[in-house]
Amino acid sequence: MAPLTRQQTFKGEYAIELTDVKKSFDQGKDFILKGIDLKIPRESLTAIIGFSGTGKSVMLKHILGLYEPTSGKVEVLGQDLSELNNNDLTKFRCNYGVLFQSAALFDDMSVLENVCFPLDEHRRHLKKDQVIQIAYDKLKMVGLDPKHFEKLPSQISGGMQKRTGLARALALDPEILIYDEPTTGLDPILTEMVDNLILETHKLNQGTTSVMVSHDLAAAFRIADFIVMLDAGRVLLSGTAQDFFKSDIELVKRFVDKGMKH
Q: What is the pTM of this model?
């Protein structure tokens, strides 16, 4: 299956649906995911939160098709991922853009070359000058000055590296943008910059569904349309920030209290 184009944009209500997803790595002795039911609305900015070890990263890898569920179903843009062979799954992943925790740039490539990389791999019909123009446009979109385009990642700041990683994630005009713990380990000023960048990027790329996995509850409440809290491999609560503030669930109240004081 080829990736969707902007003209074929999936029109369903939900971009991502997980139905009773369970995952065990030891033949069912212990389950990391214990029956995840989750629907992420199309074109929303959704934050997935929870204490460490609750299954956030494992769930994310199911959404990306990196893990197969032990049982249950994962649907992305209306496609059951279990129905795709490896080749089709690779093509389907062009519908995703991912900003990794550490930006994960190629050290020996310039800023511009890093953004050109997915285009060189997956848009081979484009001429070199077209690839470069797209990369230029994406880097400008995320607010990076052209004077940095020829620099190596080691020659730019941490904030610039995040912007470069985001430009690369946007290179293929993905239907779904995923942010994997984008602010972990960053100082408060850089954290706020990345949070604002995520919000601005979501507003600029109309039609895109954004999913942010984060420990930063205050940021999730500030920028996300919807919030999903995991606990012990299940969805404890999903809804708006207001739903979390009003919740009577003891663990939610503790998490909210801890997160807002942090």
A: 0.87
